[in-house]
Amino acid sequence: MDYRRIKDQNKEHDAVHDDIETSRGKPLSGSANSMVMLGGNSSVQSKWKRKSAVTLALTVLTSSQAILIVWSKRAGKYEYSVTTANFLVEALKCALSLAALTRIWRNEGVTEDNRLSTSWDEVNVYPIPAALYLIKNLLQYYIFAYVDAPGYQILKNLNIISTGILYRIILKKQLSEIQWAAFILLCAGCTTAQLNSNSDRVLQTPFQGWVMAIVMALLSGFAGVYTEAIIKKRPSRNINVQNFWLYVFGMAFNAIAILVQDFDAVMNKGFFHGYSLVTVLMILNHALSGIAVSMVMKYADNIVKVYSTSVAMLLTAVLSVFLFGFHLSLAFFLGSTVVSVAVYLHSIGKLQR
């Protein structure tokens, strides 16, 4: 995709937005001014409620995601095929988007912004983020060979760094000094939380786990920023249409992954071999998380996603104490606290840009 074209379109969109904001500041006469103010307040409240709802939902879904993946293991191994699970996640997200569109068509009719039929120029940008999400989602299963659920949630906060830097490189958005300081604190917090005082190894997570975490952060950040640029370059386009095409390509890439990695197992044992209730709940969780992420991208921004991940980190640690006997060490407490402070500073720096 031509990033320069995205950037120019974003600038045009921002310019229009600035013009609208400027016009709002001009005095209006009589009751018309009151009506505009009341309408504006109602719109702001509605937007705030919608943003809060999707952020809360994403926090709950994210906190349970790692727990369900670990819980789905049997004797430390996945009895089911992770590629088929990934495929079902994309298929379910696609079905949910189509169901939402069907309801919209029934209530509002088919319009230019909510119709599925489109041009190749609009949909040819989706294969790139779909492929990136495929690799990231597969790594999400394999990283648990090296980390536990709370450690995974800690390392996921590296997304903040990759997302922020990629915002700077791709979308040319300035980062404040506070944000850069927050990135340094994030690295320190993630490292502190991984300190191990019970063995000769300094960090609990081995080198392979750190590499996978960093790669996942880069893939997630790049795919997230890329997808947000796609979604927001045409703000009037219905989010469910945009989701539908992203998930269609996601299904296609996951089907290829099944053929390459698990074809023999699927043919000999069946597509749903090894599935359990926990596996089904995990797939449902992943699908709803994907929908929530896209809603955040549409109505807020990609940084909100990593904020919810930070809160989910604490919830995951607490739940893991009861479910898996996780030892809440002083190092983990200090590290998670530093990460939380870093996220808070990053949010302040974002507001001050």
Structure report:
The protein is an all-alpha fold. It has 14 helices and no strands. Helix 2 (30-71) runs parallel beside helix 13 and helix 6 packs antiparallel against helix 13 (302-323). The longest helix has 42 residues, at 30-71. The two termini are 27 Å apart.
Give the DSSP E fraction (strand runs of 2 or more residues). Answer: under 5%
The major pleated sheet works out as: none
Q: Name the poorly predicted regions.
A: 1-32, 34-38
Q: How confident overall, as mean pLDDT? A: 79
Q: Can you write the helix and strand succession as a string?
A: HHHHHHHHHHHHHH
The secondary structure category is: mainly alpha
What is the number of helical segments per DSSP (H or I, 4+ residues)?
14
Radius of gyration: 22 Å
Shape: globular
Helical amount: over 70%
Distance between the termini: 27 Å
Summarize the topology:
Layout: H1 3-25, H2 30-71, H3 82-108, H4 120-123, H5 127-142, H6 149-156, H7 158-170, H8 177-193, H9 207-232, H10 239-261, H11 263-269, H12 277-299, H13 302-323, H14 330-351
Short account of what is shown:
This protein is mainly alpha-helical and 353 residues long.
